[in-house]
TrEMBL record:
Ranges where the Carbohydrate kinase FGGY C-terminal domain occurs: 159-336
EC code(s) of this entry: 2.7.1.17
Pfam families associated with the record: FGGY_C, FGGY_N
Protein name, per record: Xylulose kinase
Coiled-coil residue windows: none
Length: 403
């Protein structure tokens, strides 16, 4: 949620030839939360601290460092969120490092594949907690890459949508298209493919605000209002922002508000229309093969039904909520297996034949394509996605002119 490094982001993008070029090279434009601009701010505002810093770690590599008793490498997947790694070569870029701060390369160290071994467990853990001295520590990564692994989202065409405090959309592609909105990361469980991630600050808290205002603080009333309105909402589109948005913030005829039922449908449809539009721009296929929905709102079947209609595919839900920690465990097993065989092996070898009736199994929440109405509605939503993206672009241009 940090937005204190706007000046540094502008400086980095200018040094790298613009926001789009930076995105094409490193996987995303300079977002305020990205590690590179954060490091630059530290160097500029607290040079004595930066000068005394021997190593810069991500949270993931720092935790791995604690386990091995030495500096662990940053993994290539989490490292892609720093604005300093070339997503094509998966190595640090000299020009990007120079755009951040002097002497950064030696502070960052080497990058490593996500399935690689960080090292053996430190003697401290062997002596105090009786770990086997041969225990291997596999590269740690971030929550989103681990969630992808935990949801077994490994094939191009798969899509996951997390409806939490911050809504996120992530999927697998073998032909990423860098844009100013999304983030592209190497796939932690398949070196040949990439993850496309879209992140929205305005998720569950923004939906809850609108629920409290129009639906008497009740999700039951919220759902009833949703069901009272017809799909496409009579052409009513709304843009809802409690927080300054990451994806373009931001109506041909403008009104202050709709009736309560239309407001409720507008915030749900609007978010999914935006997700679909930006996912397509980043190279994710629509319709996806399937969607796996996670997060708090994934327990709401009325909301999931709208998701299925807009994206044009069936929606599944995970049997457990902690997909990131499950994914970390699966990745540890995968890294161990790769080390045992001294080569990269398919991630599916870890869970193949074990996903039915276990925590890896997915439950069909909303089917799609069983009737002609599904296709007709998808076609109508496709037109509405285009209209929303056009309005969004007009709003961006209008607000840019005011600044």
């Amino acid at each position: 949620m940090d937005s204190s490094t706007a000046a540094q982001c502008q400086e980095v993008e200018a040094a790298m030839g613009g926001a789009l070029r930076l995105a094409a090279l490193t996987g995303c434009r300079a977002h305020e939360r990205c590690t590179g601009p954060q490091i630059r701010k530290m160097w500029q505002t607290r040079p004595e601290v930066y000068g005394a810093t021997e190593r810069v770690s991500l949270v993931s590599s720092f935790m791995a460092s604690l386990l091995i008793g030495g500096y662990a490498c940053i993994d290539q997947t989490d490292g892609a969120g720093m604005n300093i790694m070339d997503i094509a070569t998966r190595q640090l870029r000299e020009d990007a490092l120079q755009a951040m701060a002097p002497g950064l390369e030696e502070r960052i160290g080497k990058l490593a594949p996500a399935h690689a071994v960080s090292g053996k467990i430190a003697p401290y853990f062997v002596q105090r907690f009786q770990f086997a001295s041969s225990c291997l520590v596999i590269q740690w990564s971030g929550d989103n890459p681990n969630s992808l692994a935990g949801l077994t989202l490994s094939n191009p065409g798969d899509l996951a949508i997390s409806l939490g405090t911050s809504d996120t959309v992530f999927g697998v592609t073998d032909s990423p298209e860098p844009t100013l909105e999304g983030n592209i990361f190497p796939n932690p469980v398949d070196p040949k493919t990439y993850i496309v991630l879209l992140c929205y600050k305005n998720g569950s808290l923004t939906r809850e605000d609108l629920r409290n205002h129009y639906a008497e603080r009740s999700w039951d009333i919220f759902n009833r209002l949703l069901e009272e309105t017809s799909p496409l909402n009579g052409g009513r589109l709304g843009f809802y922002y409690k927080e300054h948005e990451i994806l373009p913030p931001l109506p041909e005829e403008e009104v202050d508000e709709f009736d309560p039922a239309s407001e409720v449908r507008a915030i749900i449809e609007g978010q999914f229309l935006s997700m679909r539009g930006h996912a397509e721009q980043c190279g994710l296929p629509v319709p996806p093969k399937r969607i796996i929905a996670t997060g708090g709102a994934s327990s709401n079947p009325t909301i999931l039904k709208i998701m299925a209609s807009i994206f044009g595919c069936s929606v599944y839900t995970s049997q457990r909520s902690d997909s990131a920690s499950l994914g970390a465990a699966l990745r540890a097993a995968h890294g161990w297996l790769c080390n045992q065989q001294d080569e990269f092996v398919s991630f599916s070898n870890v869970y193949s034949g074990r996903d039915d009736g276990s925590s890896l199994s997915m439950k069909l929440a909303v089917p799609f394509g069983d009737c002609k109405r599904d296709t007709e509605l998808l076609n109508s939503y496709t037109l509405l996605v285009k209209k929303r993206m056009e309005i969004e672009q007009k709003l961006i241009e209008r607000f840019s002119q005011r600044e």
